[in-house]
Design a protein that fits this description.
alpha+beta; 3-stranded antiparallel beta sheet; 3 strands
Length: about 120
């Protein structure tokens, strides 16, 4: 078999990874899958967390998760990117975006709670 024929059968594993998260379930899996697949908004905008952009990310071909068995505390996350995009960069961005979303929700909730408490005292 010639080298050219061998290269055609090689799968570029740099563009596809399956990552196992221990002690995680659907809560992280579904949120992280959404954050990785969505088209990115600008994270500095406070309303970023509430912008539901339903277009797919141009760098990510596929992102999915599975729970192997309900009795196992494991979540498998599979990310497949287009050529030229590193899987770990996509995963890191997804985790960062999810943390930013959680921070924005806490901020909005705290502001609403404080506003409500102020109106009650008036």
């Amino acid at each position: 078999m010639e080298d050219a024929e061998r290269e055609e059968n090689v799968i570029d594993i740099a563009s596809q990874r399956i990552r196992v998260f221990d002690h995680e379930d659907h809560t992280l899996g579904n949120a992280l899958r959404y954050m990785i697949m969505k088209k990115q908004a600008h994270p500095r905008n406070l309303n970023y967390a509430f912008q539901l952009i339903l277009k797919r990310s141009p760098e990510v071909e596929l992102c999915g998760y599975s729970i192997p068995h309900p009795s196992e505390a494991k979540m498998n996350l599979r990310i497949q990117t287009y050529e030229g995009t590193a899987v770990y960069d996509v995963l890191e961005k997804g985790l960062d975006d999810l943390m930013a979303l959680c921070d924005a929700v806490v901020t909005k909730f705290t502001d609403a709670r404080d506003d409500f408490a102020t109106r009650l005292q008036s």
